[in-house]
Design goal:
Elements lengths: L34 E6 L5 H15 L4 E6 L9 H6 L3 E5 L3
Parallel strand pairs: 1-2, 1-3
Length: 96
């Protein structure tokens, strides 16, 4: 067989790499009395996931206040700084 007729098959998967990173420093001992932001990226089921997480948090920390916000586009930044400033902690959900 002529080498010009050979096809080279390449595996695009690459080699899996593991990376460890440290958790962010905790600013609060407990969530009691805090405002917890729930930021939804408008993907399917992100709102349902955040509602579930919010319910769990309220059951464990009855004094927390949940503040929900939905981003309507990937690039939307309007109001995010104000939203974050009005919350003690923010949970950002990406779902499909």
């Amino acid at each position: 067989m002529d080498e010009s007729q050979l096809i080279e098959i390449v595996n695009p998967d690459g080699v899996p790499a593991a990376k460890r990173s440290a958790l962010a420093a905790r600013r609060f001992e407990t969530l009691a009395g805090l405002r917890v932001g729930l930021l939804d990226n408008n993907k399917p089921n992100a709102d349902m996931f955040l509602q579930f997480v919010g319910s769990l948090l309220q059951a464990r920390h009855p004094g927390i206040q949940l503040v929900a916000k939905r981003k309507m586009t990937r690039m939307e930044a309007d109001g995010l700084a104000e939203f974050a400033a009005g919350c003690d902690v923010v949970i950002n959900a990406f779902a499909d």
